[in-house]
């Protein structure tokens, strides 16, 4: 039987990106498969020149294709953003850099969709996502918050809507109108103490159905999507279905968190979602004497952002009030409360996000942009 593209793609699923822990087919890295009899010509797009697959890709493709009828193959390696791999030959360069989302945008009424991701859990991703949303709302923007963390939704607590059921119209969920924003969370539909266990395809389906197909999002200037930590299926689904304006990656400054944050950055880049920048959370704490207590190593995320040539969007120190207001579900208290440093840190993050979105709109194809 003649060799088919489907066979080749399914064989290539055994080749995994060691940084992203997913196979190159799911990651959309296989850009071209041409078959001529038993000869296969592939074009594979890696995250960048530093990709760990750069050296091993040909060997791994050979091993994968050994399980098919292919007798000969060639691999053209390109890098995201358009630069061909050294010696790649004519026609190896890929144009672009913009999102390769679907043609049918499921959220045409939304001006900008911003994903907030992190490599690790517990680094303050949901806290930052919520406060970015509320902070943008305070400036008069029409804002939505999509709690995409379908494994551990924290929006009900952060917005003080625990135990409240959403309303529906014509079979579609209406987002909660709360604290000046519109929010949807799976946490409002399930038992708060029940573990949410999703296999990969179920996670994809649950996120798509709940957040995109079955929610009536109003017209919005910004939709902030709080993603689960790591490089899993929900992030993949979002990037594939929605043309993202960009992603913000939250990291704490210690090395173990930064290592994972780098993987999250690489994932967004590979999925053609522009990374708007990195935020350092829990940067330091102010002691009673006003001195900084450097708990996790201030500046780690800024250095890493510099190394990755990404904008650094700002640092958010540890503030006990932020934790308390988050547990109470009173986000406006972060902006209006007595701690002016807390308000200023959050307002700076909001401004930084607005600046990055403006830059993206002005220069859509640019690989990364820094505000100076
Ligand atoms: P993630 O979404 O990354 O899992 P969360 O946003 O749920 O993390 O934050 C984890 C915990 O840390 C929460 O209790 C939150 O209130 C607290 N927290 C996050 N950032 C800060 C900060 N800068 N100062 C004080 N507490 C914080």
Keyphrases for this structure?
3-stranded mixed sheet; binds adenosine-5'-diphosphate; 9-stranded mixed sheet; alpha/beta; 33% helix; 372 residues
**Which ligands occur here?**
adenosine-5'-diphosphate
Provide the succession of SSEs.
HEEEEHEEHEHEEEEHEHEHEEHEHHH
Uncertain spans: 83-103
- Helix share, percent: 25-40%
The portion of residues forming beta strands comes to 15-25%
Using the CA coordinates, give the radius of gyration: 22 Å
Shape: globular
Instruction: Compute the average pLDDT.
Output: 85
Total strands: 16
Q: Biggest β-sheet: count, sense, barrel?
A: 9 strands, mixed
The helix count comes to 11
Task: Provide a descriptive summary of the structure in words.
The protein is an alpha/beta fold and 372 residues long. It is built from eleven helices and 16 strands. It has helices at residues 5-12, 53-65, 125-138, 155-158, 200-213, 233-241, 255-270, 300-307, 320-328, 332-336, 340-362; strands at 16-17, 22-23, 30-36, 39-46, 72-79, 110-118, 143-147, 167-169, 172-174, 176-178, 181-185, 220-226, 246-251, 275-286, 292-293, 312-318. The strands form four sheets. Strands 6, 7, 10, 11, 12, 13, 14, 15 and 16 form a nine-stranded mixed β-sheet that branches. It has a three-stranded mixed β-sheet with strand order 3-4-5, with helices on one face. Strands 1-2 form a two-stranded antiparallel ribbon. A hairpin with a 2-residue loop joins strand 10 (176-178) and strand 11 (181-185). The N and C termini lie far apart (59 Å).
């Amino acid at each position: 039987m003649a060799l088919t593209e489907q066979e080749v793609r399914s064989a290539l699923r055994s080749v995994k990106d060691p940084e992203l822990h997913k196979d190159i087919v799911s990651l959309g890295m296989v850009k071209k498969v041409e078959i001529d009899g038993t000869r296969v010509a592939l074009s594979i797009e890696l995250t960048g020149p530093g990709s760990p697959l750069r050296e091993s890709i040909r060997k791994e493709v050979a091993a994968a294709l050994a399980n098919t009828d292919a007798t000969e193959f060639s691999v053209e390696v390109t890098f995201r953003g358009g630069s061909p791999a050294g010696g790649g030959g004519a026609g190896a360069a890929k144009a672009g850099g913009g999102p390769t989302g679907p043609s049918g945008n499921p959220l045409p009424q939304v001006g900008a969709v911003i994903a907030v991701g992190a490599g690790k859990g517990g680094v303050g991703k949901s806290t930052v996502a919520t406060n970015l949303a509320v902070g943008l709302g305070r400036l008069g923007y029409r804002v939505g918050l999509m709690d995409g963390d379908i494994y551990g939704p924290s929006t009900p607590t952060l917005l003080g809507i625990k135990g409240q059921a959403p309303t529906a119209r014509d079979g579609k969920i209406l987002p909660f109108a709360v604290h000046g924003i519109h929010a949807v969370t799976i946490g409002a539909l399930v038992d708060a103490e029940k573990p949410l266990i999703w296999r990969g395809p179920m996670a994809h389906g649950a996120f798509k159905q709940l957040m995109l197909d079955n929610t009536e999002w109003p017209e919005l200037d910004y939709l902030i999507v709080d993603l689960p930590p790591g490089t899993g299926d929900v992030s993949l689904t979002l990037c594939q279905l929605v043309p993202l304006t960009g992603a913000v990656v939250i990291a704490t400054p210690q090395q173990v968190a930064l290592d994972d944050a780098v993987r999250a950055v690489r994932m967004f880049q590979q999925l053609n979602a522009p990374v708007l920048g990195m935020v350092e959370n829990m940067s330091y704490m102010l002691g009673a004497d006003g001195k900084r207590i450097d708990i996790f190593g201030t500046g780690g995320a800024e250095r890493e952002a510099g190394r990755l040539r990404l904008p650094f969007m700002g640092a958010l120190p540890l503030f006990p009030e932020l934790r308390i207001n988050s547990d109470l579900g009173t986000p406006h208290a972060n902006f209006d409360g007595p701690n002016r440093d807390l308000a200023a840190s959050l307002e700076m993050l909001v401004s930084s996000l607005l600046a990055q979105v403006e830059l993206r709109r002005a220069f859509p194809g640019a690989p990364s942009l820094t505000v100076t």
